[in-house]
């Protein structure tokens, strides 16, 4: 007897009519026609059953702080950083925890059960670190939270940050971050990449750097990050986030850069919503939009995971916690419109990001954690188009969030009385 059986599901790889059985918080069977009894049975009715969504780039210490101490009038990255600098001295552990827990509630409702959050270590009080470590412990039963020691003001640019970052790692933050393009000089940026990779190698940690988040095509710290990854033997443990300068680089240089990243087994984490909002602010027209070269990276075999980055904070006044919003923007901005492309973008907010984060037991194979999301959509392309309701969010075999099926009632003579948005897509042979 199983604890849970989900009947007649469609899986992200296109298989249909599949049953998934759960025993002792793990997936015990994935096959059609499971007849064994179960403590609970859910009829998927042919809808899409996915592993949970994964956000590999977020700032949970800043989330839901919109309007504190004032609004970002220009809407630029630099004013956002300045605003955060004004807010930072007033931060309290209690307020940080409250906002982060509220965001995690929202995340769970969207089927988002794993987040990597950068935590600012520029304030030597490290109240951000204390708060996020407590949040990590409190949400552990229902959400996997990874923390990155992030020197928002630069590793060398501000006095005391080197020591504060080390203390944050000693306190239990598990990933080394950086922001080389925000150092005072290109030389300091390159020096910071080397120093931070050395720390990660010495401590046996992963690296995730904000890298070249600028429109300047000469901001090329990702090249240094790739080289230091190989030098320190960090292959498979390093991610470059944002990488927006690559949007403005010449094609010849990129033809050299992408193989270097692939050789270093680096991952890339673009953040389409924020990148599209913040980049190109000095342009008139034509106006660059700043999103990095996602299709070319995927062609090179570089793992690409898409991040939410911000929700209602000094940098971004919008955001829903829905990774399908992120994938939806990526499809448009990269012109990846085929069914295969959209499946790849769905992977970028699920399996790719789980791989980048090194999540154990993630997926829909036998033996994986019984973490799943049932969506009101027939396949991955439709999930990105509709950004549908999460009918069931399951963690370790238990339903922890659910949303009713979306239906509209019509009063139109001679037309159907009920409209289900998931039933309107043409059936296309893949």
Number of helices: 13
Distance between the termini: 36 Å
Rg, Å, rounded = 22 Å
CATH topology of the largest domain: TIM Barrel
Largest sheet: 7 strands, parallel
Q: What percentage of residues falls in helices of 4 or more residues?
A: 25-40%
Structure classification = alpha/beta
CATH architecture of the largest domain: Alpha-Beta Barrel
Any low-confidence stretches, pLDDT <50, length ≥5? none
**What are the secondary-structure elements, in order, as H or E?**
EEEEEEHHEHEHEHEHEHEHHHHHEHEEEE
**What percent of residues are in strands?**
15-25%
Order of strands across the main sheet = 6-7-8-9-10-11-12
CATH 4th-level superfamily of the largest domain: Metal-dependent hydrolases
Rounded average pLDDT: 97
In the residues, how many domains can be counted? 2
Q: Class of the largest domain, according to the CATH hierarchy?
A: Alpha Beta
**Total number of β-strand segments?**
17
Plain-language structure description:
This protein has 430 residues and is α/β, with parallel strands linked by helices. It folds into 2 domains: 2-51 and 363-423, Urease, subunit C, domain 1; 53-357, Metal-dependent hydrolases (TIM Barrel, Alpha-Beta Barrel). It is built from 13 helices and 17 strands. The chain has a 7-stranded parallel sheet with strand order 6-7-8-9-10-11-12, sandwiched between helices. β8, α4 (161-171) and β9 (175-178) form a beta-alpha-beta unit. The mean pLDDT is 97. One of its GO terms (molecular function) is cytosine deaminase activity. Its EC number is 3.5.4.1. It comes from Pseudooceanicola lipolyticus. InterPro entries: Amidohydro_3, Metal-dep_hydrolase_composite, Metal_Hydrolase, Metallo-hydrolase_Enzymes.
């Amino acid at each position: 007897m199983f604890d849970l059986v989900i009947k007649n599901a469609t899986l992200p790889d296109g298989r249909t009519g599949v049953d998934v059985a759960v025993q002792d918080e793990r997936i015990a069977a994935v096959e059609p026609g499971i007849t064994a009894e179960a403590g609970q049975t859910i009829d998927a009715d042919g809808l899409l059953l996915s592993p949970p969504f994964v956000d590999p780039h977020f700032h949970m210490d800043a989330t839901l702080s919109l309007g504190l101490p004032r609004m970002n009038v220009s809407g630029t990255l630099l004013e956002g950083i300045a605003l955060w600098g004004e807010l930072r001295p007033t931060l309290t552990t209690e307020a940080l925890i409250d906002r982060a827990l509220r965001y995690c509630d929202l995340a769970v409702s969207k089927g988002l059960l794993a987040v990597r959050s950068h935590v600012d270590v520029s304030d030597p009080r490290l109240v951000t670190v204390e708060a996020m470590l407590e949040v990590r412990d409190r949400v552990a039963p229902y959400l996997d939270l990874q923390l990155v020691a992030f020197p928002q003001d630069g590793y060398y640019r501000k006095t005391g940050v080197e020591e504060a970052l080390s203390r944050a790692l000693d306190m239990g933050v598990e990933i080394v971050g950086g922001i080389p393009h925000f150092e005072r000089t290109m030389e300091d940026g390159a020096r910071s990449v080397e120093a931070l990779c050395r720390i990660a190698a010495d401590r046996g940690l992963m690296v995730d750097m904000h890298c070249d988040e600028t429109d300047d095509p000469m901001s090329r710290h990702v090249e240094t990050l790739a080289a230091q990854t190989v030098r320190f033997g960090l292959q498979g443990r390093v991610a470059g986030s944002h990488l927006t300068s690559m949007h403005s680089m010449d094609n010849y240089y990129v033809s050299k850069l992408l193989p270097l990243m692939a050789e270093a087994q680096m991952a890339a984490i673009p953040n389409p919503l924020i990148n599209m909002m913040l980049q190109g602010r000095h342009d008139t027209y034509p106006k660059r939009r700043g999103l990095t070269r996602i299709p070319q990276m995927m062609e090179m075999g570089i793992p690409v995971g898409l991040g939410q980055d911000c929700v209602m904070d000094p940098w971004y006044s919008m955001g829903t916690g829905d990774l399908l919003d992120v994938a939806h923007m990526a499809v448009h901005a990269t012109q990846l419109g085929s069914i295969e492309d959209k499946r790849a973008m769905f992977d970028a907010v699920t399996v790719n990001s789980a791989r980048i984060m090194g999540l154990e037991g993630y997926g829909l194979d036998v033996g994986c954690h019984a973490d799943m999301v049932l969506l009101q959509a027939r396949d991955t392309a439709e999930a990105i188009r509709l950004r549908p309701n999460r009918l069931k969010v399951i963690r370790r075999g238990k339903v922890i969030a659910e949303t009713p099926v979306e239906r509209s009632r019509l009063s139109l003579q001679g037309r159907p009385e009920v409209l289900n948005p998931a039933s309107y897509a043409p059936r296309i042979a893949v």
